[in-house]
């Protein structure tokens, strides 16, 4: 008995499998500032509920380092920066595949996993004997670290706090210093302090925004993804009510919603 499947059947089976795959499935890699760790994870999850065939990978780190990597040809399709100046610089040198899009303004807070940070102020960082180390992001390449230094300087506390400072590679790494007990207090992103994993462990105090330059944030589609439909679709999704609701929940101040065309 001949059990071989006729070629015509094989062709029909292959055709059926082909058309059962998600239409227009794509793949992108996003380089994102570490303050977006929880918010952008939630945005991506919401997007993929509607676009289940698309693959979106996110790498989190410091905006300054990502800027350098994109300039050197790193394979990122979108770049979300905690400092809008970095994507603007990439646009100036022809490394952008879209205009720069402002997406949020970040805020910085004092946060602790062991102390009631809601009762602390910047002057306590130098004077409270319980506080041996204060964690901030490395101001050489992390916008949140730059703003932490600005706030300490503007409040007249930098000289007293500087000997206690320990530096995270990015703002998420900074929060890990505090969460692990290697620092008693950190100056971190409000977006991280509001995440349930951290908010359940300690309180926070919102640092007055007049003490530092605005943390205006922006993103671009990179030049390598200029013709990548998924990259542009996800960029557009960031302006959707669903994405904006997630960002608001994590404490970001959002630009005005775009006017429907």
Top keywords for this entry?
disordered N terminus, single chain, 261 residues, five-stranded mixed beta sheet, D-Maltodextrin-Binding Protein, domain 2
* CATH fold group of the largest domain: D-Maltodextrin-Binding Protein, domain 2
Order of helices and strands: HEHEHEHEEHEHHEHEHHEEHH
Task: Quote the average pLDDT.
Answer: 90
Give the name of the CATH architecture of the largest domain.
Answer: 3-Layer(aba) Sandwich
Total of DSSP H or I helical runs spanning 4+ residues: 12
How far apart, in Å, are the first and last alpha carbons? 66 Å
The first-level CATH class name of the largest domain? Alpha Beta
Describe the structure.
Helix content is 38%, strand content 20%. It is an alpha/beta fold and 261 residues long. A five-stranded mixed β-sheet has the order 2-1-3-10-4, sandwiched between helices. Helix 2 (37-50) links the parallel strand 1 and strand 2. Helix 2 (37-50) runs antiparallel to helix 12 (241-249) and helix 3 packs parallel to helix 4. The longest helix is centred in the first third of the chain and has 14 residues, at 7-20.
